[in-house]
């Protein structure tokens, strides 16, 4: 968890060896979200980040 007093942090998604990882500055380690590809990285990252029911709408 983030240290007390931290107001802002980053979040990004990366596809490594066919797997989607979330890098969140508030967490001590990457979060594995399962299979992905460079072609579906944006959609997969947005769906995971926003927990959207309708991931086809951007």
From TrEMBL:
Domain of life of the organism encoding this protein: Eukaryota
UniProt-listed PROSITE patterns: UCH_DOMAIN (PS52048)
Molecular function per GO: cysteine-type deubiquitinase activity
InterPro entries associated with the record: Papain-like_cys_pep_sf, Peptidase_C12_UCH
GO biological process: protein deubiquitination; ubiquitin-dependent protein catabolic process
Pfam families noted in UniProt: Peptidase_C12
Residue ranges annotated for the UCH catalytic domain, each copy included: 1-58
Coiled-coil ranges from the UniProt annotation: none
GO cellular component, one term: cytoplasm
PANTHER family for the chain: UBIQUITIN CARBOXYL-TERMINAL HYDROLASE
Family stated for the protein in its record: Belongs to the peptidase C12 family.
Name assigned to this protein: UCH catalytic domain-containing protein
Source organism of this protein record: Aegilops tauschii subsp. strangulata (Goatgrass)
């Amino acid at each position: 968890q983030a240290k007390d007093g931290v107001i802002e942090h980053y979040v990004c998604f990366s596809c490594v060896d066919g797997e989607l990882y979330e890098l969140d500055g508030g967490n001590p380690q990457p979060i594995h979200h399962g299979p992905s590809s460079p072609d579906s990285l944006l959609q997969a990252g947005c769906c995971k980040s926003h927990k959207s029911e309708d991931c086809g709408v951007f």
